[in-house]
Amino acid sequence: MTLEGTITRTNDNTFTGWIASLTFDVDIAISENPHKKTEKHPDFEITAKSTRNRSIRIGSAWNATSQAGNDYLSVAINFGTGEIRANAVKTETDGEYRFIPYSN
């Protein structure tokens, strides 16, 4: 899947940004999961705004570390057309991450 997007970490450990493909283009917010009770639960909730400006949860994200020791977010998002899996990896810009979709 062709997928582009970036998020930027804010001072309060949330992220804001956008994600887009040929079928969607949305602004997103990623915030800590207030319902996390076990290690298996997602670390973050991903939300977007509906056409009526309602906040809708569209996915989850987990903190992860690569074998090389680099921190990233493992992301699962659903826009109503099925789940999209991607990683959000750090860029050279401080606090910025870009999305890299999983290969199917």
TrEMBL record:
InterPro entries with a match to the protein in the record: DUF736
One Pfam short name: DUF736
Record-given protein name: DUF736 domain-containing protein
Species, as recorded: Cognatishimia activa
UniProt lineage: Bacteria, Pseudomonadati, Pseudomonadota, Alphaproteobacteria, Rhodobacterales
